Amino acid sequence: MAIERDVHLLEPGPKRILALDGGGVRGIVELAFLERLEDLLRAQHDDDPSFRLCQWFDLIGGTSTGAIIAALLALGLTAREATAHYFELAPDAFRARRWWVPGVAPRFKAKYLYDHLSKIFKDIAMDSDRIRTGLAVMSRRYDTGSPWLLSNNPRGPYWPDPADGSFIGNRHYKLADVVRASTAAPGFFQPMLLPIIKGEPSKLFIDGGLSPYNNPSLALIMLTQADNYGLQWPLGVDNLTLLSIGTGNARGLTQENTKAPKTSGALLLRSLMDTLADGQLLTLTLLQWFSETPAPWTINSEIGNLGSEYLGGKPLLRFQRYDMPLDSEWLRKNLNIEFTEEELVVLRRFDRVGSMKELYKLAKLAACEQMKPDSPLWRAPGSPTVSKDS
């Protein structure tokens, strides 16, 4: 079997979406899963060394650190090449300031991150043919408080320049700028300024994780279904597959969060993190409710995992979520590894570069445990985009 073509947004046939969460340096968890995924898919293509994930997925989307990885894959890098870039980028991006006053300045200088992004993506714009498949990046516009999903969909309503000059077409945005906007986490990096209308002041953008779409899956589905986007991909388990990969879910009852925070600031931070986790859980709940999910996650003790209970009576697509819960019970049960709560608190940090190697090692074990060669996700009828050698 040989690879037939790169896949694209506008071509017919079964469609596949890859959604990548935000999560700071814990993006290394996603990369470990992506390496495993790429190995399994390459095996379906006679171990062709030229195989890339951008050839199998019709749309790759990400938020924050997931946006960096999504862009690398969409440009045709292998998962391992993306991992190498990530191990080089993260120590520079998360280089702490020598003098830092919390609440006064961001903890890290955005210049280091942006310099790396500019080095990798150069002057590539969203309409560049160097982007080999569909790409979508989630950020949040600060002045309007609205999530912005910027993609290379040429049928999108804001893709071309309008005749009246009322805005700059999305096709002109630089990939480095779009990704940098998605990673502008308040308190960690400065917001990103993007020009919206020629001759007017640029607007502030912040991390897309501060929206309901830190897991961008639902936004990506909307991109493929809503009339205004012009794609309208066919639904059904044989027509649409969505793989969602997390950065190490950390929600759970622990000794750390059973005690009331000592300060109002700590309570505010804890409540914010819980709200973000609630958004993640809602996304997972909805997707498992209207999808066929080969290995569903337990939502909670009340509704279970929803199993084959489909909203509307039948599944709209095939879906699978991959993640590595940074929870002592899960790690002990699934990986046979013991961690203290104090150790897990360190691993859960978004900004601790020193944890990356250990997270990567753990995630490779978790990926092998969750991603099996015989999964229906890549063996379903019509699934591999291949043709017989002549």
* Termini Cα gap: 10 Å
> Helix/strand/pairing class, anyone?
alpha/beta
User: Can you give the mean pLDDT?
Assistant: 88
Mind summarizing the main beta sheet? 9 strands, mixed
Q: What form results from the Cα inertia axes? A: globular
**Please, how many helices?**
11
Q: What share of residues are in beta strands? A: 5-15%
Q: State the helicity in percent bands.
A: 25-40%
Radius of gyration: 20 Å
Q: Name the assembly state.
A: single chain
Instruction: Identify low-pLDDT runs.
Output: 1-5, 380-390
Characterise the protein shown here.
With 390 residues, the protein is of the alpha/beta class. It is built from 11 helices and 11 strands. It has helices spanning 27-43, 53-56, 65-74, 79-93, 110-121, 175-182, 217-225, 264-289, 328-335, 341-347, 356-370; strands at residues 2-3, 15-20, 59-63, 134-141, 146-151, 192-194, 203-207, 240-245, 291-292, 317-322, 386-387. The strands form 2 sheets. Strands 2, 3, 4, 5, 6, 7, 8, 9 and 10 form a 9-stranded mixed β-sheet that branches. A hairpin with a 4-residue loop joins strand 4 and strand 5. Helix 4 runs antiparallel to helix 5. The longest helix has 26 residues, at 264-289.
